[in-house]
Amino acid sequence: MKNLQLQKVLFYGLLFLMTAIYIGPFLFSLSISFNAEQDVFSWPIKLLPEKWTLGNYASVWRDLPFGQWLFNSFFITLIQTITNVFFAALAGFAFARLDFPGKNILFSILLASLMIPGVILLVPKFIILYEFHLINTYAGLIFPGLVSVVNIFLMKQFFETIPKDLEEAALIDGCSYFRIFWQIFLPVSKPALAAVAIYTFQGSWNEFLWPVIVTTTREMFTLPVGMAFLKNEFSVQWPLLMAGTILISLPTLAIFLLFQRYFVQGVAAAGLKE
Amino acid sequence: MANVTLNGVKKIYNKDVVAIKGADITINDQEFVVLVGPSGCGKSTLLRMIAGLEEISDGDLHIDDQRVNDISPKDRDIAMVFQNYALYPHMTVFENMAFGLKLRKYPKAEIKQRVEHAASILGLGEYLERRPKEMSGGQRQRVAIGRALVRQPKVFLFDEPLSNLDAKLRVQMRIEIKRLHQQLKATMIYVTNYQFEAMTIGDKIVLLKDGVLQQVDSPMNLFNNPANKFVAGFIGSPSMNFLDGTIEQNGELEFVAGPVRFGIPNNTALREKLSPFVGRSVVFGFRPEYLYDQDKASCKPGGIGLQIKIDVTEPIGSEAFNYFHFEGFDSDPFCFRSDSAYAYQSGEQVRVGIDADRLRFFDGETELRIA
Question: Which residue of chain A has the CA closest to B159?
């Protein structure tokens, strides 16, 4: 009995500790974002600002092309999320349900491409887009992330758990394969589609490396790139940076909270059969 | 409604695995045919070939007079009920049943009328707006049948539709499907693992083993006149007893299996059939139902009598299954079905009789029936 209680205390203690480690920096950023600049470096560290101000948030909107960056980020993320969901589902369906020559080899090649570190591909990708005159354009920002192998893999795994009888019943009912995909498989795959959408949204919204490479002018920046430029060579505008960061994290936070149910289901459903 | 004809239909996987080794079956209009056999015998494959879900490797499949080998499932005018219902989980019962008709562009009013009619036949009227997950197994299977019903297809195919239901529901649904057949007078092809289901539901049974048709016949003919030892053993529960032995001519024609020995009854037909097997191995088969206690029942003249010792009895209420060995003979236990009015004791000696026309003999090598 006593042992059990001790176990519980330890368990919850550990949980609180982990939560603090993850949420602490976020709360500190939140606090700094409401702080006037001169207080940031005061010693000892003040966890809460002495004087609360919304000035940093106002300044983000007023002094930076925040609106433009917000549009860029939203536009790119939206397109990439839609195309990822659509193409990953389509390819996943083909790999899971259709028989075509070279299917296994093609899938192996796709999987093998996961083993190549993304950094290695940066230069070739840049050169290709340069040749197509797509540097510093929306197309250049969007094209490399239209669909990802991980998402195809996730959708394939999910579609494979759908009983074959369902597909055959639809065939006998008179469906073509595209209709089976569209009217039967997609509606029953909401958890997996939501997981792909959330992963993609998060990844695309927070993407830093590719936009920083492919954009050359301030107005083409996405939010993470724009924020990074608040760090100058000699100084960092911490309160401004934190205010911007908090604003950037709001959409992903909202999406996660809204679709958390699907997200968990999607991750769980990837390996489970009904 | 339609005839279905299979001529030398074969299924070969990966060029060398033969799943169906040439099936010739004629299914007449309005007939209820059951494909039955042990797991892996190819019965589902055969059904799926008729449905168009599996390609036919060789031979011809005709529905009415049309060769349908290369016609897609949707154009064969068939409907199929699957083992695990295969209902579209995101659609209501109405939408599930209407889906096939919608795809075939039927007018809305007709779809509604057909679905409601099918629902009333199947007692689903009040569930039309529910989704499959809100229904029990039996109700789901009814929806699956309803989905087939509304299409009014030429042929209904059932792929082990009752396997997922509990025993009580299975009996209920079995009766319902049989009633439906009588009502619709449709051609139906039904696959099952259970010989009991096949016997009770079918007009005609196709019994398969390892992709080979063993016998195509009426249930009673399968039971009483099995073509070979496998059919005899598969049909009937408990199954037929088999005793390996030889036919010998010691003055009179005798069956000998170790200490078990009896003279072949003085029945001309039986003797004529068995005399070519003198000195050869044969299998003697007798059904538990056709054994009777000679002390309690009067027997027909010309039967045989055997002395047995009861090992175990299993009373099941209306009757009892008594398991026994022949003294001094090592083999699987044999079964003798008796009326539950008299309870046999373990170790009890009983003299059982079998009428001459109930004796079955199979060729020891080919396992084909001799008599």
Answer: A165
Instruction: Please report how many Cα atoms fall inside a 13 Å half-sphere around the Cα of residue B60, on the Cβ side.
Output: 9
| Mutate: best of A168, A172, A188, partner B, most B CBs <10 A | A172
For the four alpha carbons of B157, B160, B164 and B165, in that order, the dihedral sign comes to positive
Say how far apart CA A213 and CA A216 lie, in whole Å. 8
Nearest CA in chain B to A170: B100
Identity of the residue in A165, A172, A187 whose CB atom sits nearest the CB atom of B84? A165
In 3D space, the residue among B236, B266, B227, B50 whose CA is nearest the CA of residue B153 turns out to be B50
Please say whether the beta carbons of B147 and A168 come within 8 A.
Answer: no
Contact status of B88 with chain A (Cβ, < 8 Å): yes
Instruction: List A residues 140-169 in contact with B (Cβ-Cβ < 8 A).
Output: 163, 165-166, 168-169
Question: How many angstroms from the chain centroid is the CA of residue A176?
Answer: 34
- Location of structure tokens 């996943």: A92
Contact state of A166 with B79 under an 8 Å Cβ cutoff: no
The residues near B221 (Cβ < 8 Å, ≥ 6 apart) are: none
Q: Give every strand in the sheet of B212-217, ordered side by side.
A: B78-81, B155-159, B187-192, B32-36, B204-209, B212-217
Q: CB of B79 within 8 A of CB of B147?
A: yes
- Single-letter amino acid code for the residue at A115: M
Residue A178 touches chain B, beta carbons under 8 Å: no
Token digits of residue A131: 């040749």
In angstroms, the CA B99 to CA B144 distance is 12
> How close is the nearest chain B Cα to the Cα of A175, in Å?
7
CB pairs under 8 A between A and B: 55
State whether A172 and B79 contact (CB < 8 Å).
yes
Instruction: Determine how many CB atoms are found less than 10 A away from the CB of residue A253.
Output: 12
B74 and A184 within 8 Å at the Cβ level: the answer is no
Q: From first to last of the 371 residues of chain B, give the pLDDT tens digit.
A: 689 999 999 999 988 899 999 999 999 999 999 999 999 999 999 999 999 999 999 999 999 989 999 999 999 999 999 998 899 999 999 999 999 999 999 999 999 999 999 999 888 999 999 999 999 988 999 999 999 999 999 999 999 999 888 888 889 889 999 999 999 889 999 999 999 999 999 999 999 999 999 999 999 999 999 999 999 999 999 999 999 999 999 888 999 998 888 888 887 788 889 999 999 999 999 999 999 998 887 767 778 888 888 999 999 988 999 999 887 777 788 999 998 888 899 989 999 999 888 999 999 999 999 98
Q: Is B100 on the interface with A (CB under 8 A)?
A: yes
- Report residue A187 as tokens: 């509606």
Amino acid at A14: L
The residue assigned the tokens 């009333």 is B120
ipTM computed for the complex: 0.85
